[in-house]
Design a protein that fits this description.
This protein has a nine-stranded mixed beta sheet. It is α+β, with helices and mostly antiparallel strands and 226 residues long.
């Protein structure tokens, strides 16, 4: 649903327009504390690795499809390593993923369940990305989460354009609920007789599985078919 966040939509528009020049590196991060209590440790996210819980399946999946949206190109190779297990979980504590896209851009994903990050609001504002180009950097704060950007949300979703001497906030024309937009897109596909084949979901699942394959192989680089 994060591709429907108004700030992420605007980020893609700016990148396609060449606002920060040639992009060669993208960093995405969703790191927080989850699994510190007995209730959290017993949830599917922490106790059922066969269901692809853990930070890679839970939030790494969002980072991976957003990486492709920002790059405008699919990931075709990656290498992944698990973080040291500081929490006693049945799943990985976290992971670092290095990827390359078909267009030649590289990037990294950082996901974790064992990072306090100061507290809930500081955590939410840190869930975002940095896109590095030859003429500037595009930074998103709170752009990788369930937030849509409404004024009554716990933290402000922000997008900033850094041109090295000046940082300017990026405005969006219209906020939309990210879940409502996703449901609307599905409803429109039915009404307009444009069946969805699920290929995007299958591709994203393959990326998650490849991350685990690489991590189990001590960070070996793996490629995707096609």
């Amino acid at each position: 649903m994060m591709v429907h966040n108004a700030y992420n939509v605007r980020a893609v528009e700016l990148l396609r327009a060449g606002e920060i020049g040639a992009v060669n590196d993208i960093v995405l991060h969703m790191e927080f504390l989850y699994g510190g209590s007995k209730e959290e440790r017993s949830s599917w996210r922490c106790s059922r690795p066969e269901e692809l819980g853990g930070p890679l399946g839970d939030v790494g999946s969002h980072c991976l499809y957003m990486a492709e949206a920002l790059a405008g190109s699919r990931i075709h190779g990656l290498a992944c390593s698990y973080l040291p297990p500081t929490l006693s979980l049945a799943v990985e504590n976290g992971a670092f993923v290095q990827f390359e896209t078909a267009s030649g851009a590289q990037g990294s994903v950082r996901v974790a369940f064992n990072q306090p990050r100061g507290g809930p609001r500081a955590t939410m504002s840190n869930l975002g990305y940095e896109v590095y180009g030859s003429e500037g950097v595009l930074r998103g704060y709170g752009t990788l989460f369930q937030l849509s950007g409404y004024s009554d949300e716990p933290v402000s979703v922000r997008l900033e354009l850094d041109r090295f001497r000046r940082v300017a906030p990026v405005r969006v024309r219209r906020i939309q609920n990210v879940y409502q937009a996703l449901i609307q897109a599905h409803a429109d596909s039915i009404r307009e007789n444009r069946p969805m084949d699920g290929s995007d979901g299958l591709h994203n699942l393959e990326l998650v599985l490849k991350c685990h394959e690489s991590a189990r192989g001590r960070g070996k680089r793996v490629t995707l078919k096609g």
